[in-house]
Fold:
Amino acid sequence: MDVHSAQKSDTIQTILEEECNTEVTYVPGGCTSLVQPIDVVFNKPFKTVVDRLATTHMQENLDAYVTGGLSASRRSVLITKWVGQAWEEVSANKDMIIRSFRKCGISVAIDGSEDSEINISGLDGYEVGESDSESTEDEDDDPFADVEDYPQEEEETTQELEDTNEEEEDDTQEEEEDAQEVEEEEDAGTRRSRRGY
Structure:
């Protein structure tokens, strides 16, 4: 998931982990369009279908659009209908959905034999490490020999994330306080203008 604050709440994490048996992993900010399958392959054709349906409707009902004959509630119903139709049309292409996960490196074989299918946009020439099937290591060599450094790196990364989260919380609190001050000033200004000050 992306790092939207609503998705990072303890409640959401608990529901996903305990009720949906889902391991939560967050995509770093600014990377969603590169490594989240729905953004990499699915969104463009989905939005294209919605646009086609909307354009067709507008062309067939031009008078209603020009004269304002479509209420907001009617437009909401139409948009919901187009989204549903687009979902039906695009999700029927199971190969596209599978390709989106494989292109991001999700659901490829763990042994590395399918790593050539990983194609992250913007990382031209990127190659995933050597797969077991291509490895020239002796079987006695330990592929995890350098893992002892990992916990320290993990601790540093965890601390960096905690520091970033604390900074974001501080920024959010400051923004809320600023908004409250502005609201109080506006209220005071309204009261003064009513009194004739």
Observations:
- Residues 155-197 form one domain.
- Residues 97 and 158 are 32 Å apart (CA to CA).
- Confidence is low (pLDDT under 50) at residues 131-139, 143-147, 149-157.
- The chain has two domains: 31-126, 155-197.
